[in-house]
Structure formats: C-alpha cells, structure tokens
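Curious: why this fold?
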Amino acid sequence: MKRFFIPLAAVLFVALCLASGCGAQSGQQQTRAQADASLPPEERAEKILNAMTLDEKIGQMLMIGVHGTALNADSRFMLSEYAAGGVILFDRNLETADGVRRFTKELQDARSGELPLFIAIDEEGGPVVRMEDIVSPPPAQSEIGETGDPAQARKWAKETAKELRALGFNLNFAPVADVGESERCYSADAEKVSDFVREAVQGYAEEGMLCSLKHFPGLGKGKSDTHLGTVIVEADRETLVAEDLVPFRAAMGNDAAKRLFVMVSHITYTALDGEHPASLSGAIVNSLLRDELGWQGVVVTDDLEMGAADVCPFDEMGVRAVEAGVDLLLVCHDYGHEQAVYNGLLKAVQSGRISEKRIDESVRRILNAKLNLE
C-alpha cells in the first residue's frame, strides 16, 4: 500500500531522494515508450503494458488536481510516489502564459517513467473557461450553435487546441455533447448537437489534441448541479436513447475517435440504473456505453469529489467506478482523496476483488491514447 499524504516539509526528503534516483518509482519505465518506435501504437502499448508493475498501472488510471503555480514537493510526491498518469489544471494554477508553459513542462519532467502525462483542462467556452487573460476564450457552445454553421465548432476547436497545445496541454475536457437549453449545450435538438459535436471532435484531432465528450449519458435533463448533491433524471429509456444518446453515438463513430475520451456523469438515471450514479454504474458504462454503443476508448469519470458522487468513501469510490467499466479516475482537489482512490484500487486488486486483467484493459486504452499523442 502507498503511504498517506505527508505535509510539504516532510516530503522534501523524498524530493531530494528522487533527484538522486532513489524514489519509489525507480525509472522502471525508462525507455519503454521509446522502444520499438517503428511498431504500431497498439503493439507498442502491449509491450509497455507487459513490462509495467501493478503500482505503475494503477497510477496510470489516476488523474489528479495539484496546488500551486509551479512544481513543488507536494505535487512532485504525487507524481513520483503514486505515479499519477495525468494532471488537470485550474485557474488556481494558471497566472501567466510563461508560467503555464513552465509549469506544464515541470510536470512532464517530474512524471514517473517515460510515458507522457495527460495534462488536461476544462476549456469549453462561455461559462466554463480558464485563463481568460492568457488564451482566447471560446464562445459558449450555445452561441456557436446559434450560428447554424457546424463548421464554427471545428474552427473554435482548432483555435482552442492550438493555443492550449502551445501552453503544454494535450487534453481538453470538451466538447459538451449534452442536449439542452444550457449555455454549455450547442442546442436542445439532438441532431443539431450531433452535427456540431462531430465537427468539434474533428477540429481537435486535426490539431493533434485529445478531447472528451461529456457528460455521458447526458446532463441536459438534469435540474440541479452535480457539484452540490444528488441529481436524478427520470426520463424513460426510449427518450434517453432518442435524444440524449444521439450526439454521443454520432461522435463516437467519427474518424477522429482515436483521440477521443468519453466523460461519464454522476447523475442517477432511474430508467437505466436507479441505484447508482452513472459513473459507478455497470449498467450504464459496461452495458450501455461499451456493449450497446460499442465504445472501446477511454472512459473518464467527472470529478469524484462532486457532491453527486458522494455515495461511499473515496477508497471505495474508485473501485466501484472501475468495476463499472471506467478507465481514468478524476480527482481534482484534495491530495488525501487522490491517495485514497489510488490505495483503494490497489488494495482491491491485491485482495482479488478486481483482477489485474481488468486493470490491464483500462491501462491498454490509456497507453494507446498516450501513444497517439506522438
């Protein structure tokens, strides 16, 4: 089991050890991602996977938030001791363009092994933007939808991707594929949303950037905020299939889908699974998203610290999400919560509750996505 979080001062010793090469993750992944560069990404991913330790695999399934505007002993500790495979940044981390570029490089340089970190952001546009003084804020998706021209979605995705990539980001948690009246949605018409989402996904792919549809199977019918507490959607299955699922299905068939993630919401959909939020529901992730819709790419949770996900302790939450079919566990704010998610999943594998084969399925998808960044 990994240790619990240690305050900043106590971690300085660990940071010094890492500088001299004695950290817990001792470079076991060195040169793996570079080896056999002539092989297709899928074959390279398999070689890398076969050489990874269980600790490294679990780390690849964890995306964390960090604090500060530069690498410090706390964030270095999380990247080395827990081998976190991804980081999401917020305005609290982002002050100037030079500072952001420096920080993203520091994070990549501090990662465990040679595999690149996912460095992610939420740059949707309109009400959900970061770094307004550093990058060009995209319009709200509703504003883009009102143009009636899906090519505008591609245009803004390309522009956003160029600016984000120049700052060191490789994953944007956008576009929103929800169907509804919100500023965050392209439209309340499912077919129109589909047209705009397909173009946005293509735009990100053309600039070599990963993106993510959200929030499966659709937030549009939710009447309250998942950040604050439980949200229940009572629409029948036929309505959900005919409306909310349409844009997801359309975008997942896009030629650019190899650079695409699907983020699953924390809403409870009574017609699909009345007991569990979508992020912890095998009926929604494994049965609906994987089996019925055929999605075999990366599935990521919305932030597990949201109120709507608060149905069990954090060490259990990550386990249930992985049992449901999720690959990447997003924990945005508290280091203790991030560690609990990691330790809970590691313990579940060590006890036999989750097989290492199941972990390999997720890590294989993550590796393929990382290798497609090259």
